[in-house]
Structure prediction request, 480 residues.
Amino acid sequence: MTTSFPMNAGDGVYSYYKNSHLQKEMIDGAKEMVRDAIIRMLNIKIILSSSNTLHIAELGCSVGPNTFSAMHYIVEALKDKYLLYQDQVINFTNNIPEFQIFFNDHVTNDFNILFQSLPFDRSYYAYGVPGSFYGRLFPSRSIHFVHSSSGINWLSKIPKELVDEKSPAWNKGLIHYVGASNVEVVNAYFAQFEKDMEIFFNVRAEEIVQGGMMVLITAFSGYIRLMRFFGSSLMDLVNEGKLDESLVDSFNLPLYYPSPQEMTKVVEKNGLFSIERMELINIKSNLVDEADAKTLMTSLRSSIEGVIISHFGSKIAEEACARTILKSEEISEWMKVNNENPSILAEEIVHGGMIVLITPFSIYVRLMKLFGTSLTDLVNEGKLHESLVDSFNLPMYFPSVEDMTKVLTYPQSKLVDEADAKTLMINLIAVLEGLLINHFGREIAKEACERTILKSEEISAWMQANYEKSCQLFVTLKRK
Prediction:
């Protein structure tokens, strides 16, 4: 039997309906990929051979509004796919098919809010299907397209080993596998995910027509790392004597974030579906300042509050959630670091995860020579001590192809005339000004920058002569 923890119901302050901003970013970030999968990979001929009505299942719909956004672009993509097929087939005059969408979530999901907010201009018929997607939901061979975003991360239950003091996988003091040094904890989570997905694929294979498609999008993996802030709030309550430590030791979040390799393993082990496309998406959230951190944690609360209340009770859940939101400033700093400096996340990237690195336009480093001449001019005029220039070096390096042992790609920049040269130098100054002020002081930095901009004509001539030598380096790294 699966455990049911739906998103917060209603439309109040902490409802999922009003606090699903990050989930919206996830859905929007995958929109074009879903459309591309439908246009390029879905066999519309097979699907339409038996019916002129397309059946779409939305698994883990919650209460909206994100589910409606996802269904809108899926229906539009299916219409476009149909029209493309119609253009390619002689004497094919069938009308655009009708669409039935089955919105599924736990039986305790707030379907009233969901259906009250259905878009008036929708071009589909909507149905509610309550029940766990770790079981049968639809008749055999009845579904043409399945979509699930941020759904399969939820396990059907917490592995019992995690709360057993005698088990090597006992997860004492932590509420999730992220941050756990005990590999047995991670193994227990994956084993449960593997069992759940075997059931999931088996029942979906019964329900989906031959040639039908299923798109699964896992939740933002950075989301779960925010749980450490919630965990620290729980420990604060323990230290203040308001919460028994054993309650924390017996609590684990039923969430798992599979790597591409793990997802491939469970699909291939099941053998009932083929992988048409799989890749990591890097969603860089716009939520970065303190107000946004509060928004994000409120969103997190709307997702997990049911789990918390079930284990700790309403009073403790309320205080723990409130305390976590008060950590907004600390969370904001964490978000900024993790948004702007992804390279420091090497310890957190899953095996098989991916990093994409793009070096700056290498023309920059050649322009530094001209900036250096401006500094030398100031030395010659007695406005700047030569030792300051001698002790200044830019902390920048532009690796060669050999250095990175990867492939070069050449940019298609059109910055070649004098006005463009000025634009480029202003851009460069915007990048470096803080560094220059720190070393030379504001007055000298300002004058050196202004003098460099005045050299636009010289810069333009150099750019025209050296454009073909300029390059950008694109590197893809795989986490070992």
Remarks:
- The chain has two domains: 16-282, 363-478.
- Residues 74 and 180 are 38 Å apart (CA to CA).
- DSSP finds 18 helices and eight strands in the chain.
